[in-house]
Amino acid sequence: MERPSLEFNLPDTHEEGKLYVVDSLNNLNKLNVCPAESQHSLDEEENSGGTGESMAGSNTKNQSLFFVTFILTLIVSLALVSFVIFLIFQTRNELDQISSRLLSEKKNIEELKKLNNIILKHLNQSRIKE
């Protein structure tokens, strides 16, 4: 009867050894994969008993950081759009001024052409009289 009890104890010890090896491998994996700062947060989470308190605080902090970043992005975008609209209006005003100047210059050129034609006619008439 003692023999079966020994057989029972050996598998239990073997299972405990397997659990110890798996736990050691997990710890080693955490050290290799996670940076030092992340490891501290993982250790704190394990020490807190896995209640999720640190995760809830972290989640709230991440949400507020996201919200602030989102608001700042919206403000910067609004400022950029306003600046572009301002530039469009300024460009439109400048184009209107340039087109009005061109029209006035065109009128001046046409008047000068008329005057030139009148002078040429007058000169031609004076030559004919001579």
UniProtKB/TrEMBL annotation:
Spans traversing the lipid bilayer: 65-89
As given in the record, the signal peptide range reads none
Q: Which Pfam families match?
A: DUF4577 (PF15145)
Spell out the residue ranges making up region: Disordered: 36-57
What top-level branch of life does the organism fall under? Eukaryota
Keyword Transmembrane in the entry? The reply is yes
Keywords assigned: Membrane, Transmembrane, Transmembrane helix
| InterPro entries named in the record | DUF4577 (IPR028099)
* PANTHER family associated with the record: LEUCINE-RICH SINGLE-PASS MEMBRANE PROTEIN 1
Q: What is the official name of this protein in its record?
A: LSME1 protein
Q: Which organism is it from?
A: Anthoscopus minutus
Q: Name the gene for this chain.
A: Lsmem1
